[in-house]
Amino acid sequence: MAGSQSERQVQREMKKRAISGRLITVSDPTSAASEAYRILRTGLLFARVDTPPRVIVVTSPGSAEGKSTICANLGVVLAQAGKSTLIMDCDFRRPVMHEIFGLTNTRGMTDALLEEHSLQGIYQEPLPDLDLKVLTVGPVPPNPAELLSSQRFSEFLASVRNRFDYVLMDSSPTGLVSDPTILATQADGVLLTLDAQRTRKGEIRRAVRSLRAVGANVLGTVMNNARGSKGGYY
Description:
Layout: H1 2-21, H2 24-27, H3 32-45, E1 55-59, H4 67-80, E2 85-89, H5 97-101, H6 109-114, E3 132-135, H7 144-148, H8 151-161, E4 166-170, H9 179-184, E5 189-195, H10 201-213, E6 218-224
Parallel strand pairs: 1-4, 1-5, 2-3, 2-4, 5-6
Helix pairs in contact: 3-4
């Protein structure tokens, strides 16, 4: 009993730290940063009104450019707008979605692809008052690209597409591995995250070229760490 209480306490502390840090749309919904996420949400909701993009890959040219934080907060504001939303951590190289939401990472995407598990048995609900589900990576597989390009993944993605209004896939950076281009071929669109202070123009051009080479629909870019907006971070 003491062990389970201690574990619950650790999980509560993890969630408290996560929500007070990177989930600005939860910890400070009236901030300029939260408003920026709502503007991004509006752009998605009204993009191609007849056939709006519902399955979206969030990636970046390089590492540490804020893609996972943006993916998480975008998922929150979509759910706040009454849209059923699933966030899938598809960054098998450096998964962080469980850290952002303060979740366990013992089961997740790997279990869904390698074993027979119902989706309800592996996703988690970090914010019970919102229709938001998070599917963490789970055990990190040795062959991420092969898993993401498998028939099993295509079937899994088709099943969640039918169950949610929006599916956001947090992916590895485009400049490091082939994973995001594999995901892009099965998504409705790609959001490319940039760091205003770090990302170089050449990296952006290469990222866009690699995505368009596989026929990906680049919906646009999200500029992170931009200066000039008082009181905001994104």
